[in-house]
Design goal:
It comes from Photobacterium ganghwense. This is Phage-shock protein. It is a single chain. This protein has helices at 7-14, 18-32, 61-67, 82-95, 115-130; strands spanning 34-40, 43-44, 47-48, 53-57, 76-81, 99-102, 111-113. It has five helices and seven strands; from the N terminus they run ααββββαβαββα. It is α+β, with helices and mostly antiparallel strands and 131 residues long. It has one domain: Trna Endonuclease, Chain: A, domain 1. Helices cover 46% and strands 22% of the residues.
Length: 131
């Protein structure tokens, strides 16, 4: 379980560029053993880019909840254990030909990557943190 972030931490992290937010997500997800999505009555929230249908993911509840405004105000932040992400989500997203948008900020800016790439990077981070 993660420690709640204070507003100054949230503001600082929100201003990171997409690559720095990606690195932050990798460390936080591995440290806290959970990744965050938004859900509604239809399931997981999806975003669309020109090329891909994507599932947005966040490293902490606070960042996911910050997205639950406007059209998405009825959405709920939901955590997925890292083990469940590895065992079910990566393969399910890949099978459905969905991409992952990593830690989009309020301007909808985030890295779009394949689920297998995110899974690989999370596993690499796990090896680093277990040393």
């Amino acid at each position: 379980m993660s420690t709640p972030l204070d507003p100054s931490q949230i503001a600082t992290i929100q201003n990171y560029d997409s690559e720095k937010r990606y690195q932050y997500l990798l460390k936080e997800v591995v440290a806290n053993r959970e990744i965050w999505i938004l859900t509604d009555e239809h399931g997981c929230v999806m975003l669309n880019t020109e090329d891909d249908d994507c599932v947005p993911v966040w490293p902490n509840r606070e960042f996911a909840e910050a997205w639950a405004t406007g059209d998405w105000e009825s959405c709920k932040a939901e955590s997925i254990s890292l083990n469940k992400w590895h065992s079910r989500w990566t393969y399910g997203l890949a099978d459905d030909q969905l991409a992952v948008v990593v830690f989009p900020n309020v301007d909808e800016d985030g890295l779009v990557i394949d689920p297998e790439e995110l899974d690989f990077e999370l596993r690499q981070q796990e090896k680093k943190q277990s040393r």
